Amino acid sequence: MRKPDIRTGPRHPRVAVAGYEITRRLGESVLAKRGLHKANGEFAQRTIASIRERLQRGETIYIAGLACPGTHNTGVALVEVTQKDGPRLIVNNEEERFSGNKHTNEFPQHALDDMRKVLQRMGRDIGDIAAFVTTWDYPALLATLIRTSLEEAPASLKLLRAPIAPAISLRQLDQVRRLSRRLGRMYGLGEQLPLICMPHHDNHAWYSFTASPFADQRECVAIAVLDGTGDVGSISLYAAENGEMKQLYCNESLFDSLGAFYTVISSSQGGWTWLSSEGRYMGAAAWGDMNRATNPYYQRLKAVLQLGPGGTVRLNRAMANWYADPADNPYHQPLIDILGPPLRPDQLWNPDAVLRVEDINHRPDTKDRLDKAAATQLVFEDAMIHVIDHLLRVTGTDRLVLTGGVALNALGNMRLLEHFDEAWFERAQGRKTRLHMWVPPVPGDPGVPIGAAWLFAHMAGAPRGAPLSHAFYCGLPPSNADITTALKNDDVASMEIGNVSTPQGRDAIADLMASMVAQGGVIAIYQGAAETGPRALGHRSILANPCDPHVRERLNERVKYREAIRPLAPMATLQAARDYFELEDGASDGDYNAYNYMVLTAHSKPEGRAKIPAVVHADGTGRIQIVRETDDPLTYAYLKALGRHVGVEMSVNTSFNVAGPIAQTPAQAIDTLRRSKGLDAVVLVADDGTTYAAWHGGERDSGRFTGWNAAWKQARG
Asked: Where is the Carbamoyltransferase C-terminal domain positioned along the sequence (predicted)?
């Protein structure tokens, strides 16, 4: 096999660095005049001093973290801070949930409006917010974009007018210049509402560390931010000790990126657009050859990422071209020789081009395409392991917090726990231990507004606050009036079925839900504030019987209208999770808290594959979620009831959506029911506990819900 050509690093590093320095200095000056201030600047320091003084006087302070237009997943987080308890998350509103535009980079108007309603319910308003902080250091981000566009000039100059990365829209980013004035006028708070620009990866790192079970431990905790891109680089490493965090390394590169590698290949090989391709391609890898010794593409593909000393990862620019043209011409010929030509932008989402597992019996190229997905996952995992190996060696710790968009790869996360076992620590650190790892519920950019607000509170001297145990923070719980209004539709039938505000009422509704699921029903649960982040965790979930071997096909085909490639996740009590999956000891901190958020896969036990086939993926794993009674009493009661009906306290759980964001409002919930012909019923819980069931009405009424409900009532006497 011919040795591959290798070229790492930019062609014009000095010119690029000079462009960065000049742009950053100019950007800081220009943006400060427009109300956007750097985190270590004079205005920020005055604000920090004021907040510190108010906290010491015993006041309660509010800080808002703002994800602004121009970068994906815009939204706002509101944090309440006291000197006694530190920051407490009130809301983390993702704009996409309200607007219906997935991964939106629009101004977060709906998210801000909802946050204001929360404040007003508390007897406060926008004027009571002590600081607005942003999720990106905008002068640094602008300078990084200029640096990247100069690195490979003239070829890379195209980046000034073309999509650079999934996170960034240059056209929308221009709105940032007017943001401070827009907010000031919108809220009547003066000509400008000052904003403080917080470093993107610092936000990722601080939130993820302080939310983890490790935050109160005195020994060192390693933190890895592995991202598509930040405002300075795409890989940043930190160490936290005695409550303080310091950055150890940043790669200062947008394209020496694990996230960019996976995004570009998953899109150009799988046939989906950026931000939609990554999870699908990870799912596809399970059907490919995941053996490094036998996969026909792995040995050649791994040359794309050069793993160097000090845990460095460098893009081989002799093979990849996404440093200059990520959308239209992402490959050089050596990479085409391995993977074939990339799919063109106009082919994405085309049914003839998209990778479909179900085509494996009648399209000869499908098996090859699945092996390419597996090779991509294996190379990706190699790079993750390489970075973390170095970080654990230099810090000498066995505690790791993993975050950034890359940490959404649940399969790769599991591989880290498997790789850094007792034998590795005996060799590398000379002690008997193993890796203990935690991934937050929102490792990607929807979690960064929380981090920006929490980090700013820390800079003002607030204690860290309590670790997180759930993710129900997006939007307000639905009112009874909101639900009844949404139910007034001619094509939807509905009825009140009880009230969950008492244990008896909650258990009865949970038993009705379990009874329907046990008889082959597919139902949705809509309750409380929504989950923040990309996973449904019991507040906006579609539920089904995990013991039914046909339910995955039925759900994907008739309920979600999505590819057969997509796995279904198991939702379980802790005991059921232990009974049917091999839970890693390295994820056991906080009573296996790391499994609360569907960010880790686990290998099923042999009896699991036989008993719960619907939630065991093709590779024998499940992306598990453990439900706690204290966090979600109704879903926990449903799982206990399901144990009585089907013999296992576990359910299929998939997000309550159809080809769009997770349903946020009651109207969106009913619209999702309307569009999903295979969904039997939706259970909607109002903020006063009143609970309704809705199902297809008129000619679409199958009679299934009314039949199940009548039989259930009769059985209970």
From this structure: 514-684
443 pLDDT band, cuts 50/70/90, is very high
Q: Residue 227 in 3-state DSSP?
A: coil
Helix or strand holding residue 712 (H, E): helix 704-715
Whole-number Cα distances in Å, 143 to 136, 147, 228, 498:
12, 6, 17, 57
Max Cα distance, the chain (Å): 80
What is the rounded distance in angstroms from the CA atom of residue 30 to the CA atom of residue 33?
A: 5
Give the phi and the psi of residue 592 in degrees, each rounded to 5. 60, 35
Q: For residue range 307-336, list pLDDT tens digits in order.
A: 999 999 999 999 999 999 999 999 999 999
**How far is residue 455 from each of residues 193, 403, 465, 470, measured CA to CA in Å?**
20, 15, 11, 20
pLDDT for position 218: 84
First to last CA, the chain: 74
Across the range 579-601, mean pLDDT stands at: 96
3-state secondary structure 674-701: HHCCCCCEEEEECCCCEEEEEEECHHHC
Report the alpha-carbon distance of residue 93 to residue 111 in Å, rounded: 5
**Helix (H) or strand (E) segment spanning residue 249:** strand 244-250
pLDDT at 170: 66
77 backbone φψ class: left, alpha, beta (φ>0; ψ -120 to 50): beta
Question: Residue 172: its pLDDT value, please?
Answer: 67
Q: Count the helix, strand and coil residues of the chain and give each as a percent rounded to the nearest 5.
A: 45, 20, 40
CB neighbourhood size of 634 (10 A): 25
Going from the C-alpha of 38 to that of each of 98, 138, 352, 710, the distances in angstroms are: 30, 9, 48, 63
- The 3-state DSSP class for residue 196 equals strand
299-315 pLDDT, tens digit each: 999 999 999 999 999 99
Q: Give the three-state DSSP class for 314.
A: strand
DSSP conformation class of 429: T
Say which amino acid occupies 339: L
E strands present in 396-552: 399-403, 436-438, 472-474, 492-499, 523-527, 530-531, 540-544
Q: Are 235 and 258 in contact (CB under 8 A)?
A: yes
Instruction: Report the alpha-carbon angle 329-386-321, nearest 5.
Output: 10
Q: What does each C-alpha distance from 201 to 247, 260, 388, 589 come to in angstroms?
A: 10, 16, 17, 24
pLDDT band at 161 (very low <50, low <70, confident <90, very high): confident
Between CA 706 and CA 709 the distance in angstroms is: 5
Contact 222, 237 (CB under 8 A): yes
Contacts of 442 (CB under 8 A, 6+ apart): 92, 450, 471, 532, 533, 534
d(CA 602, CA 583): 6
Look at the block and give the residue holding tokens 């590169």. 253
Distance CA 90, CA 474 (A): 9
Q: Give the pLDDT band of residue 72 (cuts 50, 70, 90).
A: confident
Summary mean pLDDT of the chain: 94
The alpha carbon of residue 495 and the mean position of all alpha carbons in its chain are separated, in whole angstroms, by 35
Among left, alpha and beta (phi > 0; psi -120 to 50; other), residue 103 is: left
Distance CA 383, CA 402 (A): 14
Cα(634)–Cα(129) distance, rounded to whole angstroms? Answer: 34
- The rounded distance, in Å, linking the Cα atoms of 218 and 200 is 26
pLDDT in tens, 473-498: 999 999 999 999 999 988 999 999 99
> Closest Cα partner for 312 from 235, 405, 392?
235
| d(C-alpha 509, C-alpha 515), whole Å | 10
Cβ atoms 237, 356 nearer than 8 A: no
Token code pair at residue 681: 């019923």
Q: Read off the tokens for 82.
A: 């006291």
Residue 591 CA to residue 401 CA, distance in Å, equals 16
Q: Are 647 and 640 in contact (CB under 8 A)?
A: no
Helix (H, G, I), strand (E, B) or coil at 458: helix
Peptide bond into 154 cis (omega under 30): yes
